[in-house]
Amino acid sequence: MATVDVTQHLETITKKIDDGIDQYAPPAMKEQLKSIESMHPMLKQAHVVGGALLLPVLILFYVLGGFTLLVSLSGFLYPAYKSLQAMEVNDPAEDKQWLTYWVVYGTFSIFESVMSFLKDIIPYYNVLKLGLFIFLYHSSTKGATKVYDKILTPYIIPHISGAKATKAE
Q1: Which among 68, 85, 88, 90 has a CA at the least distance from the CA of 139?
Q2: pLDDT tens for each residue of 103-119
Q3: Cβ neighbours of residue 129 under 8 Å, at least 6 residues apart?
């Protein structure tokens, strides 16, 4: 008996969704939803309900910072997780990768705060920033290690080593 009530309730909701689609959806969307419905009868309603549920989440995401928040989280969460993993394993290559990542990340953050006007001048700034972070931490590129080998080692490390040698004397 309870199953019949649930089924009737779902049919009522499905009918309301179909009526809403027929009344408010533009013709191109109706065609797309009909092609989806041809695959499975309930997919059309599932897409409409999923879209309706996703909209408040996207609005909240936009209010909280939007793409800037996504870029900041992607530049911090995954590298933090991998850094914690690297501390548990005795692998100098991993240590070098993640220590260099955090040095570059910190330097970039300081540079970004001092030169904040560049965010407005450079088109697609956040997309470029996301690309840089992914390049630095992705396991196939190991960009932070490349930055260490090609920039820090020839230009910065000799000055640091020279300072250490001077102190030792």
Answers
A1: 85
A2: 999 999 999 999 999 88
A3: 71, 75
